[in-house]
Amino acid sequence: TVNPNPVLSSTLTPAAICSGSIFSYTATSATTSSSFAWSRVTISGITEAGTSGTGNVSEVLTNETTAPIDVTYAYTTTSNTCSSSPQNVVVTVNPLQTVSVSITASANPVLDGTSVTFTATPVNGGTTPTYQWKVNGSIVAGEVLSTYSYVPVNGNLVSCVLTADPALTCTTGSPAPSNTVTMATYKSLNLKVFLEGPFNGTTMNNTLNSNSLIPLSSEIAYPAATYNYTASSVTSIPNADIVDWVLVELRDAATPAAALPATKLAGWPKAYFLKTDGSIVDLDGTSLINIGNPTLAGNLYVVVRHRNHLAIMSATSPVLAVGVYSYDFTTGLAQAYGGTGGYKQINSTPLLFGMVAGDVDADGISSVLDYSAWATDFGKSTYLSSGINLDAVISVLDYSTWASNFGATNSTGFKSATISKYLSKVPK
After folding, report:
1. Which residues partner with 192 through β-bridges?
2. How far apart are CA 226 and CA 322, in angstroms?
3. What's the pLDDT score for residue 93?
4. In the predicted model, what is the mean pLDDT of the chain?
5. In 3D, which of 176, 172, 140, 173 has the Cα closest to residue 156?
């Protein structure tokens, strides 16, 4: 009797499996009374060590890499004392793909009232993943795309959950939560004010700037020990339109009369730049002032100080619209608290108003002490408060500006005046 050599009739290329799954293989042969023996060698990247056995295979295979690995089982089939040459059964073990997602905001921090777009970037999400956006842990109904836009509130927590394409195999971690973005919003302050000293009829002169006399640190203009603030500095004056440094202070009170120094918001005053058009800008020379998100018990009042002009305070709270507080001091005497007593008209056509020049010692009043400082510095060409007109030279022109604002009457010269014509009306 000549017996046939038995061989496997079961497939030699079973379906691929995912890492960590059980590989089950049932060996069959067309030859009756066949028995089976198999062996598997150790393969780099497969956790399980080589092994051998008889009959069917049922074992876990773990792929430690990020690429598919083929695992070979050498099968020998025996029947009626006849054995086949080893046949290779090869199964592919695919690595598990971890599903994840990260989100970013188009801007953060952002001006209060401004829409922000969030974008989700999936990893191993497949062709048609789905998204679920959340704000402060609550699901946002209907938002299932990879982008989401809304107007955030300061402190909002934005996140997303990604569910991978169900057609994907060998994934783990789905649904996958994203990182959480904590939104920070801020309000801006849009101020306009003119200084009498450098005013030229329509705008202000930038003579100090063009002569490279504006210091790079506000400490020179406003010593921190005197003004109780943290000085600001720049590496260069940001543009040719800068006139000088100014100090801005925010107060929170029920009425302007009640806006005393004790009502000053924490962290204020701060130093900013004044431009030729009267706008007060941040240290980059263009941006509005970022005031954060102050919590107000009453109304917001704005104090503006300059080193040789009488300080002023807004008569009312700035108007808030889409995250921006706006206040224009230049449109009328009543824009400054106290009106004529500490503020003045500086132009007729167009009608404009500005801060009173001549307070050289910054004591809130125009007096002979200011004249004395001017007289001491007369003829110098440098950055000094006695340069009332901000024209880079301390001259009789500065004296003329000071004299026009000094005393109830000035007909017999500065020495005869005993009553100040102007004094700062900022509550103190």
Report:
1. 279, 328
2. 35
3. 98
4. 95
5. 140
SS3 content of the chain, % helix, strand, coil (to 5): 10, 40, 50
Host H or E run for residue 313: strand 309-313
Structure-block tokens of residue 151: 């107007």
Instruction: Convert the pLDDT of each residue in 284-296 to its tens digit.
Output: 999 999 999 999 9
SS3 76: strand
Q: Whole-prediction pTM value?
A: 0.78
* Tens-place pLDDT, residues 208-232: 999 999 999 999 999 999 999 999 9
DSSP secondary structure letters along 240-270? TTEEEEEEEEEEEESSSTT--GGGBPTT--E
CB 111 within 8 A of CB 187: yes
Tell me the helices (H) and strands (E) count for the chain, helix number first: 5, 30
Cα-based torsion angle of the residue sequence 388, 390, 391, 396 in order, rounded to the nearest 10 degrees: 0
- E strands, 84-126, are 87-94, 97-98, 100-105, 110-111, 116-123
Residue-wise pLDDT tens digits, 19-51: 999 999 999 999 999 999 999 999 999 999 999
Count of all residues that appear for the chain in the document: 428
The CB density around residue 230, as the number of other CB atoms within 10 Å, is 13
* Distance from chain centroid for Cα 242: 25
| Buried-state track 153-167, b at ≥16 Cβ within 10 A, e below 16 | eeebebbbbbbbbee
Nearest to 297 by CA among 258, 324, 336: 258
pLDDT tens column, 328-384? 999 999 999 999 889 999 999 999 999 999 999 999 998 899 999 999 999 999 999
Peptide bond into 109 cis (omega under 30): yes
What is residue 402's predicted lDDT score, i.e. its pLDDT? 93
pLDDT digits (tens, 9 = 90+) for 405-416: 986 543 444 444
Distance between CA 99 and CA 124 in Å, rounded?
5
What beta strand segments (E) does 8-150 contain?
Answer: 17-18, 21-25, 35-40, 51-54, 57-61, 69-79, 82-83, 87-94, 97-98, 100-105, 110-111, 116-123, 130-135, 138-139, 147-150
Q: What is the pLDDT of residues 187-206, one digit of tens each?
A: 999 999 999 999 999 999 99
**Amino acid in position 344:** K
327 vs 321: CA distance, rounded Å: 11
Mean pLDDT of 272-294: 97
> How far is CA 255 from each of CA 9, 130, 166, rounded to the nearest angstrom?
96, 53, 63
pLDDT given at position 421 = 83
